[in-house]
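Q: I have 123 residues here and want to know how they pack in 3D. Can you give me a structure?
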Amino acid sequence: AEGMEKTQRFTQKQIKENVDVGSAQKIFTLNLETFGPYCSRYSRNGRHLLLGGKLGHLALCDWQAGKLHSEIHVKETIRDVSFLHNETMYAVAQKKYVYIYDQQGIEIHCLRNHIEVNKLSFL
């Protein structure tokens, strides 16, 4: 976009046609209409994507390789998600408590002292 041109007028198809081959291969589509709105986080190295839908959908994927690591439905409101040290563990602020899950989507801990958390951040 140059000058006062509005970037929201560009379609994904136009962008794909005007970028290099490497960037064009990284374009992917997510259809997340059922359990949204979604909160998302990328891992520190930018390779993994963690998605949490307000209606309980959790998904962890390696978006560059197109590989889904885990996908679960917690049947509870999800308020926020955050990676911990790396992509092997992540925290989820659910309806009442914060839960810690591993890369396969297995619950490994529940933080019962943190009630109704709205935002998560890991130092």
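Q: Anything worth noting?
A: The helical segments are 12-17, 21-25. The chain has a mean pLDDT of 90.
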